[in-house]
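Please predict the structure of the following assembly.
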Amino acid sequence: MESFFSRYKNPLLLMAVLFVQVIMLATQVKRPDDPKNPSSGGTRLIRVWAVNIITPIERGFIGTGHFFRNTWHNYIDLHDVRNQNRKLQAEVDRLRMEQAKLKEDAEQSRRLQNLLGFKEKFIGKTVAAQVIGSSGSEQSRVIYIDKGSHDGLKQDMAVITPDGIVGKVKEVYFMSSQVLVINDRDSGAGVILEKSRLQGDLHGSSQGETVVKNVMSDEKVDVGEKVITSGGDRIYPKGLPVGNVTAVNSDSDKPLFLSISIKPAANLSRLEEVLVITKMTEELPNANQTAGPIRAADILAQRLPTVPKLPEKAVENANDKTQEKIPRKQPNDAGASTQPQRPISGGPAKKVVSGANPGVTEQSSKPAAPKLPKTKKSAADQSPQATSPKSTQTDKPETQPMPASGEKPPE
Amino acid sequence: MSGAVTYTSREEIDVHRFSWGISVGIPLLAIFIQVFFPVRLDFLKVFDLPLLVTIFFAVARRKPITGLITGALIGTVQDAFSSQPIGLNGIAKTMIGYLASSLGVRLDVDNPGSRFLMTVGFYLLHRFIYTVIDIGLVGASEPQNWGHLLFCAVCNGVLAVPLFALLDRFKQRS
């Protein structure tokens, strides 16, 4: 027996080491670290040690390089221009992000999605981070950033650039974090094709490609179409740019679905600085938006110039006179209710009835006011335009310009 | 450049050793370069410096046990920087370290031609082992780009020739 072990010492040791490693690997793959939450994986101690040893060196390396580079640029070469350029670049980045968000908001308004009352997620707070390392292999697409739990980072926070999304935080260490880039084969994100509004899942691959899957093959997808985040994954805020469609093929695994190749909007192979979204604000559409559909007439009423103020009595008299002189034309209650009613200085107050139709006013119990003079209404009635459809706007006497408040209109 | 791999008797083969500083520092430096430089220069990902260092130390020491332990440690640390489960590179480099040191016992692999061929062969074997473990244990089902794989193997073989020559300076005859 002793000769057997001494003779096959090397292969036996190799098998022992391999066995231990396979057991370790199988344990990692099969068993979640948190039994209560199978999807959550903890951080291996060896990973923490290795990262904590290497990243300070990388940070020092980066810091030293930046120190000399900044010294050269700041104090010798174009100090002011560089500072200004940096500020402008930051402003441009901020505006580009804002533009992307506003564009998507406008699209949402157009489709009246805000009427659904769901919560929209917006970027609340970001932390800028420097990319200090990567996995160094083509099989694993991860990067390391110089911000960690010390800076408030947590797992599954979205990492973006002003150009588009980059990935999500996978592991958080004290002074650094590991970010899973969207072209890694283990990554995933919910996306929407901007024009066709088709939803799909973004995946990476071993070759570093980004592909949108789970889009039915009978849908039409154009090359060059923009892809944005859908927000459905609860990691990336909705509306952030993801990339552009470069090719559309059928999925080899699922023949009924498409495999849409994407060129990422962010330059994933040359990342230097990224933003980590540490806080997302949730906003509900306001009550006016959720009360009901917005009519075009309401929007126009808000945008058109306001009608001059009318004396209250004049308004009442105008109604009376109109009814007397123009019996064939009944006052349009609905139309009148849409006209703005404002308190007139010096005149009796009108009580605005609150309710579904705020334009409806409560008539005061006063005697009939003096007759109104001939207004443009009468002229309008005589004119050919009175029969035109547009006359419905002009045949309301209360909308015509009236004398100044407090003055009695001439007989 | 001669591509011949010549048989050499055990007595003719020099067994080398390295100082502790070199034994620890060179692998760590290789891992550091591997994880740091591809951030700015993405094409450097085609190289696998930890694998080259594993092959070099295993061949130079010509001790299978030392070779497999070197490969296991380097691979495990390299795994720590990836998003994959720890052990993929560890297992693959353990086997490469063992095979390289076993090969070093039997063959003269000190000339540039044999080093190039040896590195190309070990790189392909390393990727093969890695893929088998990846599919068999981790459950990956990604197709392999064989053309790119061959390109990477040749690139690593080309890099191995000057790199091994540089590392030869740290050898100490035992």
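The CA atoms of residues 126 and 278 of chain A lie 5 Å apart. The longest helix of chain A spans residues 45-76.
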